[in-house]
Amino acid sequence: MRRPLARLTALCLASTVVLTACGTASDTAAPLPDPADWASVTAAARGQILDWYMYNGDEAVNAFVEGYLTRRLADEYGVRLNVVGVADTADAVNKVLAEQQAGRTGDGTVDAIWLNGENFATGKQAGLWYCGYPAALPNARYVDLEDPSVASDFGVPVQGCESAWQRADSALVYDSARLDEADVATLTALTEWARVNPGLLAYPAAPDFTGSMVVRTFLYDTAGDPATLAGTFDAAAFAPLADELWARLNALEPALWRGGETYPVSQDAVEQLYASGEIAAYYTYGPGTVATKVAEGVYPDSTREAVPSIGNIGNVSNIAIPANSPDRAAALVLADLVQDPASQLEFYSSAGIYPAIDIGRTTPEVLQRFAAVQAGPSVLPLDELTARSLPELDAGYVTAIEDGWTANVLQR
Amino acid sequence: MRVPRGVRIGLLLAPALTVVVVLFGGGLAQALAQSLGYQPFLAPRPLGLDAYRQLWTDPAVRASIGVTLRIAVVSTAVAAALGVAAALTVRSLGRPRRVFGALLQVTLPVPHLVAALAMLLLLAQSGTLSRGSNALGLTGDPAAFPTLTQDAFGWGIIISYVWKEAPFVGVVVLAALSTGVAELEDAARALGAGPWQRFRHVVLPVITPAAGASSLLVLAFTVGSYEVPFLLGRPFPATLPVVAYQQFRDPDLTARPLAAAISVLIAVLVGLCALAYLALTERRHPTRLVRR
Asked: Whole-structure pTM over 0.90, yes or no?
């Protein structure tokens, strides 16, 4: 028994080494299209199958992508869209990372990813993205490339390595049957309400995308003046603020869901808690999608949204194309198509997603149609939602906040 | 011309072995390399055991070891006890034995992910049980219902594992009991053995290796499984696989060696279970091993 086992182990190890070595042979793909010559891009895209990795936890976004976008890509460009849903965008980035690590430089399986923030930064750190195309997209004329939220992504300069797709502005969702407008006017009023009504407020554990945003919103509120947090990460300025922030969030814990003893694992879980009535208020990055849930009866009719006085964090999310995408032309067509004013309008009216383009650059007719979209009483109108928009913090802050929250609030 | 025996066996095993080696061995080799700090995408750093030293200082990992072992051991013990009891009960049923034996197998093909989601819908504070007890007037608002998911002890995870694994142990033990045990018992009875003596000296020796081996498989699985503790557990303290994945998802790539080191630790724990399983099956069935 002993000797054959040893021999087997040796065989396994030897073949592992051989096979891992084999995996690093690289392939060469067809000549890559030049976005400056757009006709050549659309010609090359025809017949390609576009593997788009995207977070698929939002039904309204899924419906827009699988309906409207899929149809237009097929009918107008002959591109077949294959949406690959991921629960966490980091999974898609890890896939690209693993492939490029294994030497697949020209024939990856991922053609495009919907992402921003840390996931973009991770890929940029490892040099995963194809860069230099966003300004060359025909529809880029509708995008304000100088806008800070487009030109930099959570403080990381975009430098042409991703192109804008949609804007997300955060908001507080609450049940007006259990809170009134005064309770949501400021974060202090909200925490006071939670102290009196414990267990009805929740946010997911950071580094969840939304949970991290809630902590950052409290940081802005603790700092008072958003200008103190502008620019790149400043550890010396952050330290005293952080102590104050952790103290504040720890003091809030007894008023949270489950007495802050634990936190929901995801934003999905938080929204389920709201739908089942376990909680009465939560923060979201997708305030436009609440209308659908109210209409479907998932959320109570008394659902409303608010932006507490400090303002609301907003960001632009993007499409990044891995450098090893074999269907780069089709990915470029997608990046361009989503910036088309007609697509942005359809996205806004059907899914409640806010435009990443500067709608002031479109025609008066398009502007009028944006203004005519009726979302219902549960959703904040576009102007109220964007009136006090706060920029996303530098990625250095985000990491420090997520690690700090885990160590000082979650593990405390 | 005759192919040498060793080569023939090697060729016959090659397809299965290739799958194991490529998928498992390849992953393990990568994890080992990364845990030592091999990250070709970043600026080169000296390889070393830093990640393993970090294992003992990282608060998430430290808290995780106790939780992981507690959940695995309790789930395994309860599943083993219920599984053996179910097998013995089904065996004593006489005619309806077939039906109940088949019933034991119903949960086997259900994926753990589905089981965990079903438990979530059943046991959460706003779940079916809570709604039922509310309708009966036993509890008031959802928060009044006992916390069975994301609870401090891990009951939700344990219940989910037991629901899946007790029937597994039961099926294995039932199979062991069907190999001529009835005849041996009849013989013992004819020789004057009482019910307890028959159980102690005939049935128990037959089911012990089966129950032990299947329990070890359950233990190995519950130590290394991810989806159930992710869905039903807490973000902190979490089980080792959940912590490994949390680290793996850290946007800072320098956290990867720690993630890989945790994975290697899990592989070692599961490997120990596998070795114990081999030792047990070898000791109990010396005659069944082919020796040449």
From this structure: no
